[in-house]
Amino acid sequence: GYNLYSGTASRTYTATNDVGTNLTWLLLVAPGATEYFCATAYDDAGLESDYSNEVSYTADLPGPARISIQ
Question: What whole-number distance in Å separates Cα of residue 21 and Cα of residue 9?
């Protein structure tokens, strides 16, 4: 499965979502806000990979924006 990490500062993740085997996840981003994201993979034994490369998204005003992470 996969864990999706997000936060409002680069490499400072304040939320974790276990998205299982879903390859698409919907998140809301506040108007004008920037969110930073990365993911990890885990196996049946609970072993988790290193963080993926980080990506960021800034929502347009007036928002909120719905983004699909794939």
Answer: 26
Judge contact between 57 and 35, C-beta under 8 A: yes
- pTM for the model stands at 0.81
Residues contacting 55, CB < 8 A, separation 6+: 36, 37, 38
Strands of the chain, DSSP E: 2-7, 15-20, 25-29, 34-41, 55-58, 65-69
Per-residue pLDDT tens over the stretch 24-55: 888 888 888 899 999 999 999 999 999 999 99
**Those residues with Cβ within 8 angstroms of residue 2's Cβ, 6 or more apart along the chain or in another chain:** 18, 19, 20, 21, 22, 39, 40, 41, 42
Residue type, 4: L
CA distance linking residue 8 with residue 1, whole number of Å: 24
